[in-house]
Structure prediction request, 57 residues.
Amino acid sequence: MSASEKAKAKTEQTVGKVEKEVGHAVGNERIAAEGESKEAKGDLRGAKEKGKDALKH
Prediction:
């Protein structure tokens, strides 16, 4: 996995998780939904990079 893509994936996952928790804590479902979306995007980016790595070897 390229280092920059791995960092992007982890950042998206972390930011998404924080936004999701903050949204739930303050009762703002829009923020919580955006956080879930960002977290999922980070998960997909990480899975894509792992798949690319698997094909290289």
Summary: The chain has a mean pLDDT of 92. The CA atoms of residues 23 and 33 lie 8 Å apart.
